[in-house]
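Our consortium's second objective concerns turning raw sequence data into structural hypotheses that experimental partners can test. To show how far this objective has progressed, the report includes one record in full. It was chosen at random from the queue rather than selected for favorable results. The single chain below, 338 residues long, was entered without modification.
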Amino acid sequence: MFKRFLAAGVLLAFGAAAAPASALELKLSTFLPSAHFTQKEMLEPWAADLKACTGGEVNVTIFPAGSAFGHVAKQLDQARAGVVDLAHGLTGIPRGRLPRTTIIDMPFLTRSADSASRTLWALHEGGFLGDEYKGLKVLALHAHNPGKIHTRDKKVASIEDLAGLRIRFPSLAISMMLKHLGASPVGLPPTQVYENLQKGVIDGTVFPWEAVYAFKLYEVLKYHLDAKVYTTSFYFVMNEKKYNSLSDKVRGCIDKLSGKAIVERMGPLWDKYDAPGLKAIQDKGNEVVVVGDDKRAEWLAKLQPMIDGYLAELKKQGVQDPAALYAEAQRLVKTFEQ
C-alpha cells in the first residue's frame, strides 16, 4: 500500500514537489523533527502515494517540529480551524483534550505498539471514542512500543524501587502511577531530558528504546527496567470540512491509504526503530532488567487504586462510564495479543 516513491518523497519533505499548476496543496503539520522515522516512513510515503493515486492532483507539504505549524500544543486546534489541513500529533497534549483516547496510556495495559495501535483503531471504529475528534476526519491512531523505566545512578529492579526518585513522565496516567509508587514526577519536553539527567536534576525517565537512541540518552543512563510499563498515542487527522470539499476521487484515495493501511504498519515500524536503542545501551554495557508477564500482572494489581483514581479523573472530564471503556480496551488488547 505504501509504495516508496523516493524522489517524490524527498521533494515532499521540503514542500517542493513538482505538481500541475492546478494541483491542490495540502498542509500537514507534525510535532516531530523531519528526520524522525514517522515522517520518513509514514507521512512522506503517504503523501507520495496520495499524489500518485490522484494523478498529481494533490500535493502535500509537511511542516515538522520547528516550523510555523510544528508546535505540538497547537496542532489539534490548527487542524480543526483549517489553519493546516492535516496534523500528526500527540494525543496527550494539550492535556485533557482527548481523554477517551488516552485510555491506552494506562500502565501495564499493552505489550506492543502493534496491539496498542490496533486497539485504538478498533475503539475508534466501534464508536468508543465518542465525539473527541469532532470537526476532524481521523486517518489513523497509533501508539509506540511500551516504554521502559530508565535511571542514571540507582538500579530499579521493581516498581517499588522508584520511591524517592525524580522521574520524567509523558502523560497524566504515568504521572499518577509514579506518585502512587512514591516517586516525584517531573514534566519535561523530550529534548530537555538529556541535560537534566546529566546535571542530576532528574534521576530517570520513561521512554521506549527508540527515544533512548534518538536523544542519545544511553550516554547518561546506566540502568533500564524493561517492564513494558506504558505507551503513548498519536493521532493523524484531517480537517473535516476540507475532506468533505474534495472530489470523490481524492477522498477515495485518502480513504484507501489511511485507516488500517497505516495502523497495521506501525507495530513493525516501532520494532524496527527500537532495535538501535537497545543495541546502543547493550554496547555501552548498561544493565537491563527484563520483567515477565507474571510480575507485570502482580504490579498491575498493586496499581489498582491509581487506576481507579485515573478512571475517576476521566469521568470528571466528561467521559461516560470510563470503567466500561477501560474494560473494552483490555478486551481488545487481549484479542490482538493472542
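The partners drew two points from this record. Residues 150 and 256 are 40 Å apart (CA to CA). The chain has two domains: 1-89, 91-235+267-338. Both points have been shared with the crystallography group to help prioritize constructs.
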